[in-house]
């Protein structure tokens, strides 16, 4: 029984490693090293619409493969980087860019973190000031030893009367 389970486990491990060998490997050839670097920079800056948190270079999804080919085709047509990005934004929206342009629909994306950081700073300052006031009020309200003894006597007298 244990021997059979061990055989199944080993087979499962071998199969899991063999699946990675089916991954798509793209072999693109470029005329110059500059072209290759430009292509690599573009696919690093463009986000996969399906994976959402991977760039085109890292994604193995079919749409990423198609978009890498589209980028290559647009480069072969003589389009510059901005034209390529504009073409993809027109089709997939600003989401395809890791660094979208600053415009009305992306204000929250660009300025939101700074606004939240500022609000957080204001909250911290208000809380610290309030705590400082509370601690100073506590010091003023603290009783001397004699006053405390007198207060204890008053409380004891009230309790004994009941």
UniProtKB/TrEMBL annotation:
Q: Per the record, a Pfam family?
A: CcmH
Q: Which residues form the signal peptide?
A: 1-23
Looking up CDD domains in the UniProt record yields: CcmH_N
* CcmH/CycL/Ccl2/NrfF N-terminal domain ranges (all copies): 12-150
Coiled-coil region list = none
Q: Which UniProt keywords apply?
A: Cytochrome c-type biogenesis, Heme, Iron, Membrane, Metal-binding, Signal, Transmembrane, Transmembrane helix
Say which domain of life the source belongs to: Bacteria
Family under the similarity heading: Belongs to the CcmH/CycL/Ccl2/NrfF family.
What does the protein in this record do?
A: Possible subunit of a heme lyase.
Give the protein's recorded name: Cytochrome c-type biogenesis protein
């Amino acid at each position: 029984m244990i021997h059979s389970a061990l055989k199944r486990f080993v087979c499962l491990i071998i199969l899991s490693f063999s699946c990675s060998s089916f991954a798509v490997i793209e072999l693109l050839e470029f005329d110059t090293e500059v072209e290759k670097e430009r292509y690599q920079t573009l696919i690093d800056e463009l986000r996969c619409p399906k994976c959402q948190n991977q760039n085109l270079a890292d994604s193995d999804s079919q749409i990423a493969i198609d978009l890498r080919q589209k980028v290559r085709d647009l480069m072969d047509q003589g389009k510059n980087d901005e034209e390529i990005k504009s073409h993809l934004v027109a089709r997939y929206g600003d989401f395809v860019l890791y660094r979208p342009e600053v415009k009305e629909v992306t204000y929250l994306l660009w300025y939101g973190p700074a606004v939240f950081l500022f609000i957080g700073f204001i909250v911290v300052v208000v809380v610290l000031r309030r705590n400082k006031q509370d601690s100073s009020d506590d010091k003023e309200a603290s009783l001397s030893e004699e006053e405390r003894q007198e207060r204890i006597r008053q409380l004891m007298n009230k309790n004994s009367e009941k």
